[in-house]
Design goal:
alpha+beta, Aminopeptidase, two-stranded antiparallel ribbon, 3 helices, 9 strands, globular
Length: about 180
């Protein structure tokens, strides 16, 4: 299996849209706060499939200095995508990361996170951050495994969107040592 992660090109946009980023929700995070530290346990939920219907303008991540897009290929087949940008707080923010459902559990997500870290370090940023939701328990466990720390949450971010009204936004940070 040949894996390649390379910068996103305009010709890739149609191929990226075919990546199946859906995932099975089987648990939600139940948050707790003690001494300024956010922790969580998971609670099972009735399983369902969640699919993001985002129509990010992928072209915005090609050929600009403060954003980047990367395509992960396995034997020339699109297997994952990473979109990131420089955030106002001097962190790189992962705007989108997705691994195709057929290629999960093969290390692709870790390779994409490592690419984000490399990109952030090359820009002398403070670290990498991202936002996900409390119903993406598998991703949260993955981010924690990659060294990210849950630093914040917002119970109101999705309240105006009927399909996501019950979700809590979670903010994960990986801070580089000086």
């Amino acid at each position: 299996m040949m894996v390649l992660i390379r910068p996103l090109e305009t010709a890739d946009i149609g191929r990226v849209r075919k990546i199946d980023g859906s995932f099975r929700v089987e648990a939600r995070l139940v948050l707790s706060l003690a001494d300024g530290v956010i922790d969580y346990q998971t609670a099972p939920v009735e399983p369902y499939i969640k699919c993001y219907d985002e129509e990010d303008d992928l072209a915005d991540y090609i050929g600009v200095s403060d954003k980047a897009g990367f395509l992960a290929l396995i034997d020339r087949t699109p297997a994952g995508v990473l979109q990131l940008s420089e955030n106002w707080n001097k962190y790189a923010i992962i705007d989108n990361i997705a691994v195709d459902a057929h290629f999960r559990k093969a290390g692709m997500g870790k390779m994409l996170v490592d690419q984000a870290i490399e990109w952030a370090r090359a820009r002398d940023l403070a670290g990498v951050m991202l936002e996900t939701q409390d119903n993406n328990a598998a991703a949260c466990a993955f981010y924690r495994h990659c060294g990210f720390t849950l630093r914040g949450f917002d119970t109101g971010l999705y309240k105006a969107i009927p399909m996501t009204r019950q979700e809590t936004a979670l903010f994960w940070y990986l801070t580089f040592e000086p």
